[in-house]
Amino acid sequence: MKSKGFTLTEILAVIVILAILVGIGTPVYYNISNNTRKNEYNTKINYLKAQAIKFAEETNVESSKTITVSTLVQNGYVVADNYIDDDGGEIPFIQNPQDSEDNLACRIINIGIDGYDRIASVTEDSNCDLVIQEVLASELGVKAYNYERLANGSYKLTKEIGYDSSTSSFEWTNKDVLLTINPDYESLVDARFTIEGTTKTIDKNDIYKNPSIGAVINKLYTNMETVTALSILRTDVSVNAQFKQGNEIVGKDVTTEVKIDKEAPIVSSTSYSGWTSKDSDERKYLTVYLSDGNGSGPAYVYLTKDDNASQINQYNKYSVDQNGQAQVTHGYQTSSAEKLLENGDYYIWGEDKVGNRVTSPKKVTVTNVDKVPPTCIIKVMDGSTEIEQRDTNGNVVFNYTKWTRNPITVVFGCLDGESGCKVDMSGGTVTFNNTTMGVYHMPAYRISDNAGNEVLCYPNGQDVDVYHDTIPPESCPVGGEKTTWTNTPVTITYGCGDSGVGCDPAKSGGYKVYPLESTTLSIRQTVLPEWQVSDKLGNTKICYPGGKTINVYYDKKPPYIAPKKNPLPRNGQDYNLLDNVDYNDPDSGIKSVSCNPANTRDYGNTGVHTVTCTAIDNMNNVATTTFTVKHQYPATFHPQQCTRCAEEGTCSDCDDYDDCCSGCIGGEWCCPPDYCWGYCCHGSACTGGCCRRSHEYSCCKRHENYDCSYYTCDIDSNQVYLSGSTCYYR
Fold this sequence. Notes:
The protein is mainly beta.
């Protein structure tokens, strides 16, 4: 059958196995537990040492000092686990993780200095009696007050100076200090305090109890001492007191520090960099450096517009940081409204932590505030030289009217006399090299200065005049030319024409005069020689190479007038004397011609007469000619037949009938000149036609003999005569 339980042997085997396991596990457990408690202990000890060093630093322990952990508890640096009753009273308890009965609050801490570092060590010794004494003497302390010395010599307490937890140090003051020892008066045995190496013993019967702010003290008690300073005083005060607690005498040492600062801080320097504009989000920060030496330390900076301290107010007050620096972000204010810094002079005042202010502020001139946008300019470069023209306000204007031969570069850009332009003068450039005058239309562009002020330049663009001239004068004007006749002196001017910079009168040939004053000169054209002209920049031109033919139409020459050589009238005939005069004027032309007398019938008698004919041209130049005529009026008519001259040809030179016929002999006939003028002699009378070729008759012609044998006129009319080889109508 089956078994329903364990056998004794099985049970004994299990017990043996369990015993073995317990024997092995117990030492391991104890080792782990001990290590844990030891680590906890070391952690606590290290913490106590660290807090002891902090206590020494914050209470200005300058040398070696021995305290208990209880001192750290009483001063708030360590928190006790609880408090226990001892024979002397209630003391703090801090449990030792390795020994629950051991009170770490009774451990001794030695505080020392190793070089520049503070060190602390916690001993294995405990002294709870010392802790009891410290607790019993907990009322011992030193208090410091500012005071006012009244007219009657009394002292009025105005302010208590104590430990400043915000700065973890004793408070500074800028007034003298009154120290008071505040012991447990009932149990005081004796007391003394030491200031700057001087120890004063307190008479316990001459003490002032429970001082308070506003209290007036008529005298200084033995537990009081005044500490005065001229500028800066920083000293330790130590107090030692003995107290009677029951049948035991316990003592306590406390220390405090007196810090008096009557010295004003110094504004050591100011600085600012970069630029700021008028935009509220781009502020100019003026950094002020305030120093206070070994005093209470810098606290505030004030800004005013002049050196009058009465103008310091809350709106111009700036806190300094731990490095003594303050940043001023706005200018002088008279209200809470914030303003940006303006360019100008400011005065910086400093104040330390106890209220000492500088007596002489530091003047600083702020120049790096730029609220003005840059100026759009058009800059003209004459070669490498910058050309500027300014208006009445001193602003640069873009048009420049000074002419130059150098290449002109027009640069469009920015001008800013404060923070300066972000862009250089390269907004756009155009160079003119060979134009007389150009107009360039510049497009709009945007500029900004280094403070962030921006402006759009010339939104609609801008025309720029460029006065650049490398072109010679384009014309050589000639003046005074005539297309009508004149007899007054003619002046011909010739010079220079230039639409650019203009001609240089000294180098253009000037104005030349061509006077024609001869009394007998007539000229229709003349030739001007070539000449050189120059503009005011030295661009030259040769005018009319080889010369220029010009019209002058000048006439002071008399017209031509003279008698005709052939024929001249014979006696007894009436005719216009102008018919026997030649005249002409190839220049201005004949205006009028007249003879005196005008007709032979005007003579009225016979004989030789002088005729004067005058010609006048259109310029009123006058010419005359004079000749003679032989006249017989009325004409003599001889009806008798012509007589035959004895000698042929005798009558060839007859001027009249009498002269001719008086000497006629032979079978020839002499024709009366006035009757047979121009007729042929034939037989005893003048024929009515020309000589026939078959006959050898002489034609009577004045001063000439004609042989008619070779000429025949086929006209029978007696109104035709032969002259030379030509038949003429009468």
